[in-house]
Design brief:
single chain, globular, 0% strand, Glycosyltransferase, 339 residues, mainly alpha
Amino acid sequence: MQATRPAGVTETAAPAAAPTAPTTLAYLPVGVFGAVMGLTGLSLAWRLAHQAFGAPAFVAQAIGGVALVTFVVLVVAYGIKAAAGFHAVRAEFAHPVAGNLFGTPLISLLLLPFLLADVSLALARLAWVLGAAGMTVLAWAIVLRWLSVRHTPAQVTPAWIVPVVGMLDIPLAVPVLRWDGLHGVMVFGLAVGLFFALPLLAMLLGRLVTEEPLPAALQPSLLILVAPFAVGFSAYVATFGRVDAFAQGLVMVMLFLLPVLLGRLAHLPAGAPFRLGWWAGSFPLAAAAVASLRYASVAGSGVMDAIALLVLVVATVVIGMFGVQTVRGIVAGRLRELS
C-alpha cells in the first residue's frame, strides 16, 4: 500500500503534538541526538590528533565532556516528551523519514564507551550493550518496514542510511571495552552495515539525480553519504586489526566524496536558516576526520597527514558553528523554531 505521512509531521522536524492534546517538548526531534554523535566523534578525532601530532589533550577532553552533558540533557528532554504524550513519539517513528533517525540515540550509546571506558568500564559496557541490542532491533524493524510498505522516491533521503548502516557502529568501541568473545558480534555489525550500504547508496544517488532536490533544511544530511565509508573503515580496522587494500579503498572513496558534498553545502549558511536537523551532518564529518587520522598514522605520507589535519579542522569548524547556533537559539528562546 502507499505510505502516507502522519498528520502533523514534516520532513525537517519531529511531528507536532495533536492540537487537542498539547505535549511538552513535542517539537523536539529525535534526530537531535546527532549532536551527541558528532561531538563524541570529534572528541575521538582530537584524541587521535593528540597521539599523532601532539595536539592539546584538553581539547578532546572538553569536547567529550560536552558530549556527555548533551546526551544526559537530551535523554531527559526526550523522556519528558515521551512521558507527556507518547503519541508524538509514535507519530515520529511512523514517519518515513524521521523514523529512521531513532538510530541516533542508539548510535550515541555505541559511541559513548570511548568517553566512559576510562571512568567506568562497567558503565561503558552497559551503554554498548544497550546500544548494540537496540540498534539490531531497530535495523530489523526498519528493514521489515521497507519490505512491507511501498514508499515514494521523494521519501528516500540520506536519513535512510542511519538505521541499518548504523550497525557499522557496533564494532567501533569494542576494543576499549576489554571484553573477550565479541569478535563474532563485530563481524555481524560490519557485515550487515556494509551489505545494506551498497543498495541504499544506489537508491539515494538515483533519487538525487532524477527527483527534485532535497529541501534546504535536509541538505546537510547529504554528508551522511560519507558515513558508510568513514565508519566502515574504522569498523573494519577495529574488527580485523589491520589496514589492508579493502580498508584503504574505503578511505579513498570517502576522500573523493567529502569535497563533493562539502561543495554542495558551502552556500547553505547564507541561503537557509539553521535547523537542529543540520546536526545529522556532524557525525559523518567527525567520522571522516577519525578515519583520515587513523589512515594517516599508517600511511607514512606527509600529504595524508596534511589531508587528515585539514579534515579535522573542517569538522571542528562546522560542528563548532552548529554548537554556537544551537546555544544562540536556546538563549533566545527559539528552540521550537529551530526544531
